[in-house]
Amino acid sequence: MENSLMFIDGAWVEPDSGEYFPVLNPATGELAGSVPNGGYAEAVRAIDAAHLAFADWSAHTAEERAEYLMTWHRLIMQNLDDLAATLTMEQGKPLAEAKGEIGYGAKFIEWYAEEAKRVYGSTIPASARNKRVVVLRQPVGVVAAITPWNFPAAMVTRKIAPALAAGCTVILKPAEQTPLTSIKLYQLLEQAGLPKGVANLVTGDAVLIGKAFMEDSRVRKITFTGSTEVGKLLMKQAADTMKNISLELGGHAPFLVFDDADVESAVKGVIASKFRNAGQTCICANRILVQEGAADRFIALFKKEASALKVGNGLEEGTVIGPLIDKAGYEKVSLHVQDALAKGAHLVCGGEGFHQSDEEDAGYFYQPTVLSGVTADMRIMQEETFGPVAPVVTFKTEEEGIRMANDSVYGLAAYVFTESLSRAIRVGEKLEFGIVGINDGAPSTAQAPFGGFKESGLGREGGKEGIESFLETKFMSIGI
Question: Sign of the CA dihedral 458, 459, 460, 466?
Fold first, then answer.
């Protein structure tokens, strides 16, 4: 197996140190690939390249930039099976999910290829006869994108596509656990003929690479998806050079099921939300809030459906829940379950995990788990679990359900299941979350803005809003 390389200034390069780090298959512990252990110096060279390329790339017409993006989109769809296999091998999610992610990620490229042509300015009536007032939208400059391990394809395209469409140049730092999908996406981006220096890829030490990004005033924007703790640190560091910053951070999504809900539909929705990617998504249902009148029916059907989900290697046919990303992730899930049971929660199904690899940091699986009788003092109700565990809590009134749902420092996604249109609108408007799925357990789509309230982040990705933060607004007053 050949070592992978970094992509800087249009060339595939080795790390200065000559060191590489292994990427393990989280299901088996087998070596998925070896990736350059780059650092500060490589990041600076990538910034140099992006800065040099910016003047020409930003001068390209919108149609020219759109054509590069559409070529990249076509190449991705032509190589969907290969990309999905790589994604599953390094991240663990079932192959069907991986294919879905590749297609979903490609949609962002298609969307922003179209949006590149819709970056409009404006003219404003002047206050004097001999003046004209014009507003322009121009690219912000060099962008540093930092992506997480749970969606190694979609989080890359969701950041890079609008940046390139806007006329920015970019440097990508993918997660150390899942860089191989990013590298393949960049190989296809190179095939699309993108001019050198426009898109760069640096792998390795997150602290050193991040230090270069944050210190260099030529990096005008940071776009990051990850934990709230790291997001807050980046926000503080960005202040020194007043960088534009977008943050998509943690979540603790409530899933509200009212008495008048279609219970079968609600269970299908919570299965789709909770157990996708083994519960390792920022918008997955973390707190299942069920009105008392529907609780018994909901829990009985939820138990039946959750117990039937197959756990295993994502490359094996029929697998629905793959491995947890590493030992630390597994231990957090186990701790949350043990804490809940110790404090009086009832185990409806699941509740056990297993390790099946000689590697200490891979091969960790956890059964789909449903807990009832959960209370607010349990850790699972306060912290994001990031695993296939669903705590069910009951509530009496609509007002109580809304209060419980909003009782969190996070505000990324929420879900509401009800057959009442009035209630859906009423509750949806009162929820303090950036995304609300109403009778929909999978609301994400390229053409809609994705982002959260409170400590779940700043800015939006996707939709027409997603290109806005890659643009500066310039007002010109012209005397005639």
Answer: negative
